[in-house]
Amino acid sequence: MYPFIRMFWQFWRHRSDAPLPITGTHESRHVVMPWDLDFWNELNNGRTLTLFDLGRMPLSQRIGVIGALRKRGWGMAVAGVSVRYRRRVQGFARLTMRSRAVCWDDRYVYTEQGMFRADGECTSHALVRLAITDRKKGGVVNPARLMEALGQETASPPMPDWIADWVRAEAERPWPPMADARAEAMAAE
Questions:
Q1: Which parts of the chain are coiled coil (predicted)?
Q2: CATH tag for 4-188 (out of 1.10.10.10, 3.10.129.10, 3.40.50.2000, 3.40.190.10)
Q3: Phi, psi angles (nearest 5°) of residue 105
């Protein structure tokens, strides 16, 4: 089940935080609960993605995105993610999460998030590709329109090479997936 109570807690906890610039870093604290664990008493990989939501949504609030989306009837959807899991995280671990928008292109906003232990070591890191969606017209909103709505410079900061490489790799990835496997299975029948 989605952690709605924890999400509301994060919004409430950060309700008085100062607004951030569009590429500002939001920092939040989290505790790994028993229902976040897998059979090995470690933070479940899927739950890690859900916990990243708990940092990304208050970030969106602090930079003004949520208000701009509501005003225009727009939404926000994860359109891709790349995660590195580097350190074990066990039950009741206390983590600090850092979330920030890095850059954007003509379709997506690229957000970077990391979870850190008390000693400062990063346990996991995510690159999240976000799409702003128009519920009324359908389709993806160019992030430059979002920046205009926020009163921000519409030009993106330079895209780091590691993000540009991921974008290129994603563009080459076949869609629909496993088309070869389906064709082979059909031929075998």
A1: none
A2: 3.10.129.10
A3: -125, -155
